[in-house]
Write a structure and sequence with these properties.
mainly alpha
Length: 68
Amino acid sequence: MNLDTVGPRYAAGAGLLAILPVLVYGVSDSVVAGLVSAVNVVIIIASLYVAMAPIDESHDDHGNGTAS
């Protein structure tokens, strides 16, 4: 698979693989710390996924207040 064909949103989704070491950490060290770390990883990946969304360019006015 060529990485040039993979969209940035898919790459951000692949970041969810970072949850695996967090789960191992939570099970082996501290359950509360693992849970907080897992929530942080999910928030970061969700933010990247939303930030890499395509921009909707259907707005002609752009809010500049000009009337047709």
